[in-house]
Amino acid sequence: MKRFFNSTLKFSLVYFSLLLLDLFLIVWGRNELWRLVTMPVMALLLIVFYIYNDKSARPWKFTFMVIALSWFLFANIAVLFRNEAIMLILVSVFFILGNIFYILRFANNRDFDFIRLLPILALYLIYMFVILQLTLDNLGDLLIPIFIFLFVTLLTIQFALLRKSAVTKNSYYVVIIGMVFLLMSHTSAVLSVFYKTFDNQDVLTMLLYSIAQYLIVIGVVNEKKAL
Q: Which of 47, 184, 198, 224 is the least crowded, having the fewest Cβ atoms under 10 Å away?
């Protein structure tokens, strides 16, 4: 077991094999309950891989990362029952909590140039304005949970950007790419529920989300070493 999780190649092959199986189940459209196996197992693989491989993190940062991935595990399960309004709220809460613990994991005490971040903050505001304009009429009572959900995701990207001086270059960019993919997956999910869907949108959302989580974990475990 230890030998398997210490090998990024072996772990990646199993992880992406499960992802392909999960995408096939989405396209096939039958026996979706099998996704109650594929999605949690993928999340558990990420948790165990992280536990085996992050040897340099401070104990509290290590704990924050495990808690974050655990909340995403719960979200992976809850999202399969998203047809109920209460489950949509629950999914949003799980994702919000996961992102909050990502923020705590990414946080550092290094100085940063706030002025350089202003253009990025402007992009965040434009993004939120566009998404809310497209979905506002259909959000109803879910306006506040979805707003917080998207806002916290953007805030997580901000904290990922602030890692630059504290981690290796490769780790920094891999996590940033992962966070962008995560935002894209969240955006796709929100638009599919509250705006309109297109063919195979669930496939796209799951693909982006799974790659995002993989890249974030790979980037974090290599904060102090080259990939």
A: 198
Domain definitions of the chain by residue range: 57-221
Which residues lie below 8 Å from residue 37, measured CB to CB, with a gap of 6+?
Answer: none
Look at residue 167 and give its three-state secondary structure: coil
Considering the entire predicted model, what is its pTM? 0.91
d(CA 27, CA 110): 45
CA-CA distance, 146 to 132, in Å (whole number)?
A: 9
Tokens 């990420």, residue located:
46
In the chain, which residue ranges form alpha helices assigned H by DSSP?
2-5, 8-28, 35-53, 59-78, 85-106, 114-139, 143-161, 169-194, 201-221
pLDDT in tens, 191-200: 988 887 777 8
